[in-house]
Design a protein that fits this description.
By secondary structure, the chain is α/β, with parallel strands linked by helices. It is 52% helix and 16% strand. The chain has two domains: 3-208, Spore Coat Polysaccharide Biosynthesis Protein SpsA, Chain A (Alpha-Beta Complex); 237-332, no CATH class. Helix 1 links the parallel strand 1 (10-16) and strand 2. The radius of gyration is 22 Å and the shape is elongated.
């Protein structure tokens, strides 16, 4: 779909912070499909604002006196779009490190027009440099979620404006995990979220170091902790799964194994204690294998399944730190800050 033929009731909101050439690719891809584009910048120092304006894109610069968040940026973006266009019906959100596939807008709009009960559609996000690093590969595997009705979307998604306005957009207090939280409120209003079997965006994670993966996992845990604080047992499904995983495999399981090993050493002998420790390791490997087997339905290769499962289990530890960080900041009433991994 060329922008000259694009739906006039469609607008695009791109958000970014110091994305450099990734932002150029992003904005050029959306300009080809939509004439109405707003770029929201979160204090970039790399000339992103000037780049966007040079491409003929409307720019909103966030007030630097208030904490940045993707939720706040998206809210200001779609509200600015709505103030410019009274006929706004659909909003495509895209992160500044992503590039829209050429056919995505047309595919997503077709579904929203055919299904009045659907508020959000998303497709397949792929990694641009999947083979460059293990961490990029892990991101690409993560994006491969089931086709059909979903409980949540990611940062890139096409939304119905009336539904978005009905729930007053994203929660600006969240520095991560804002998409599942928004989708939870949409589903409570009777709206549906669909993941389509179509390529949507090409993402550039640019993850080359273990420390980046660690911080990204901390952010995931932080988001789950925030969701628990806000919604308790009714927190989004993905956050409740993350919390259960941390409590079971990063807290309860290691503690129980350690206590069992100590008890065996005291009551019996060192050999028995080693056997108990080995049994704990076998259980840990069995859970890892269970996760890997569960990925077979997604069409992942054997290597991808094993890599995903190992890092999924290992990620419980930094996720736990993220949850503790959320709890500590809430108790101290400290405003949350961005957790960046790039």
């Amino acid at each position: 779909m060329h922008r000259d033929n694009a739906a006039p009731e469609l607008g695009v909101v791109a958000i970014g912070r110091n994305e450099g050439e990734r932002l150029r690719r992003c904005l050029e891809s959306v300009r080809k499909q939509c004439a109405h584009v707003v770029y929201v910048d979160s204090g970039s120092q790399d000339g992103s604002v000037e780049l966007a304006r040079g491409l003929g894109v409307e720019v909103v610069e966030l007030d630097m006196s208030r904490p940045f968040s993707a939720a706040r940026a998206r809210n200001e973006g779609w509200r600015h779009l709505a103030s410019l266009r009274s006929d706004l019906e659909f909003v495509q959100f895209v992160d500044g490190d992503c590039e829209l596939f050429p056919a995505w807008i047309e595919t997503g709009l077709r579904t929203l027009r055919e299904r009045a009960d659907v508020a959000v559609v998303c497709g397949r996000r792929r990694e641009r440099f999947r083979e460059a690093t293990l961490y990029n590969r892990l991101c690409d595997i993560e994006w491969n979620s089931p086709i059909g009705e979903a409980s949540a979307c990611g940062g890139d998604s096409l939304m119905r404006h009336t539904a978005l306005a009905q729930v007053q957009g994203f929660d600006p207090s969240l520095v991560c995990g804002e998409e599942p939280e928004l989708c939870k409120r949409l589903r409570e209003r009777g709206h549906r979220i669909l993941r389509l079997d179509a390529d949507m965006t090409l993402h550039d994670a640019a993850m080359t170091r273990f420390s980046q993966w660690w911080r990204r996992s901390v952010r995931t845990g932080f988001g789950a902790g925030e969701a628990l604080f806000l919604h308790g047992r009714s927190a989004p499904d993905s956050d409740r799964r993350a919390i259960r995983g941390v409590l079971v495999w990063a807290a309860a399981f290691p503690l129980l194994v350690a206590l069992a090993v100590i008890a065996a050493a005291i009551a019996f002998d060192r050999r028995t204690a080693l056997l108990v420790a080995a049994a704990g390791l076998v259980l840990l490997l069995a859970q890892t294998l269970r996760i890997a087997i569960g990925r077979r339905a997604r069409g992942d290769s054997a290597y991808d399944r094993i890599a995903y499962a190992v890092f999924c289990m290992g990620g419980r530890v930094p996720q736990g730190f993220g949850m503790l960080r959320s709890r500590r900041q809430r108790r101290q009433r400290v405003a949350a800050r961005l957790i960046e991994y790039k």
